[in-house]
């Protein structure tokens, strides 16, 4: 049979086949026979065996020709990508590793390169901005804590081509399908090879553990759920139940083993071209939306929103990687890294050890950018720690909005550095926060701004949980993360954070749009504006495309907001002259210009309102694998430190990138000054919200200098390190945590509390009533993990009416000791006495000046 197949295909293709093409020729012919049978089973059965073989051979020949063309395309794209990467490395002749580092992830020191991380984020957010109605359909009900099964079912029905009777679902389904197809086509233009499946509706997930535990049931269920019109034999007859069961037995083995059944011992794995990703056969076809939903409910491990957004995020990463580094970025990265390391080692052999360390860090950064970290070694352990960290967010960050006041300082500083009117940014911020002005927020979201906040991301606070529900730990993780997200929303933090980001991004797009109207090239820009554009990797080609776009006027007041949408609306005819000049298609020009615009804006937005990126995550996580004790303890150590790490690393790097010594000093001074002033305001607001009088800003307890201690504490507060400012006043924080435990993070603080209970118990047994604080400390510990317990606008009331009462009940005299300590170590009195149902007086604002 194999020789017949070879001859038939050679006759169809008109030449001899190579040995590589002959390999598995029977499987190729058989697969094409089954696919041809699907189009018209009855007609296919009427054909002779020879006719079937001829038609299947013709189809196989076309496949081989397409594969050959794709191979040539990939060779050309690899060569072009190689030259691009080499040009980047050439910008750093003495340190080509630095060039690779800047190519991978955003760096705030103006490298003149649009990083892969920036492009990936821009592609993802622009895609999500095109499916806002689909997002609305997946966000859930009852404050978003519970999935809205009716909406989810309607959306899935529409995605499967069934009429749900819900107009919003119809719109949302079309948006997601269009976005997924647009990303697929862009991926293929960059060298990918993902075909179009007319019945592909939405990604699906299979919990390896659930599937592995239920082999017979999984197979039986999928035989019932299968779309029979997709399962044919080579002769055109449909598979019967036994044959389907045999097919799904093989599918079960692949899912249950995570693909290990296809591993060839001794063969290296994991180095295949990234461009091949997604081209693997997608062989499980569900008959309708109900079958899909039943399968997901019984064997899935992700929600609808996670599946949709995960698909887009992976596609965006893949596109950014292969557009920058070619169809096989893993191989390209390894080649360029080895080339750079060899060059640097030959130039300075004595620095080899340092160079090797930098190579390791670069590999970690690539893993973070590519999203290829190893899966958790133990999902149960990872989910358990996810639950713990999420309860920390839910219980401890209800007042983070107060500390968030410091964002106004970095926002103003970065706006000024980018030549943007600061007052215009603040005006846009007020518009974005106006509850009656939903239209402006929607326009900003359609421009790709504030997308993380829309979908409830906890990225700023260092939470990236699995969110599965395969086991008890998984369900707890999922619920705790939902609670943490909701607390951030209820506190106003998400709204303010999103408002800040959308205001900054909108203003930057408006300023950029105005510049494109007034200057016909980058060279024509004023020197400062031109440098800013070039430092962010913007080219003359990008500028030419931006000028062809028609900016949007959001207020009807002459706005010039240049958005990705306005770029995508440029016609092919308008782009054709430029496309012919540079030798690319109008579609590619639009994509690159839109990605560069949004990438630039999002990068600067993350400078203005600091959030951790790939660089910070790689630094914090290193090679520590999820689901191991070392990996989870390290993630717990870094919890709540990602924001200050991000702020310090990004702004310090930018300060040092200023041209002159005065420039460096000026940037640092402005940053410290705004952090200190806004940190002081945040400190005093937080004290009042906690029922205490403001702190004395003029005390001279540190070095005899009035205000020095409070100023340093305020500066730390402005840099999101307020916890450490407490040690300027006392050996412990106001919560009683030691310096070592505070440095170790919430996990270390909680462990210290539990360990100290043993000593407290011993003291109490000896009759020391002052040590009888076990109950109070346990209440405090529990409060720190209770969602919403520290919401800034209810904190004083819940503390006095609930938690103080419980603490005093279990540890009599505890509240008096708490007041004495506040007076002794922090010089403060309570305007709302602990344990009292209501305040006896107003806050003493004069206490801030030592009165």
Structural notes for this entry:
The chain has 851 residues and is mostly helical. Among the domains are: 1-91, no CATH class; 206-262 and 284-301, no CATH class; 328-373; 379-460 and 492-608, no CATH class.
How far is the N terminus from the C terminus?
99 Å
Largest sheet properties: none
Tell me the strand percentage band.
Answer: under 5%
Helix content bin: 55-70%
Question: Mind telling me the C-alpha Rg?
Answer: 30 Å
Counted by DSSP, the helix tally is 41
The low-confidence runs, each spanning 5 or more residues with pLDDT under 50, are 142-146, 263-271, 465-470, 761-769
Shape: globular
Task: Please specify the SSE layout and strand pairing.
Elements: H1 2-13, H2 19-22, H3 25-39, H4 41-46, H5 49-90, H6 96-104, H7 116-129, H8 132-138, H9 149-159, H10 167-189, H11 208-213, H12 215-225, H13 241-256, H14 289-299, H15 304-325, H16 329-347, H17 352-370, H18 379-396, H19 400-403, H20 407-417, H21 422-433, H22 438-446, H23 451-454, H24 472-490, H25 493-518, H26 527-535, H27 540-548, H28 564-568, H29 572-582, H30 586-608, H31 614-621, H32 629-638, H33 642-656, H34 661-689, H35 708-718, H36 722-725, H37 739-744, H38 746-765, H39 774-783, H40 795-810, H41 814-826
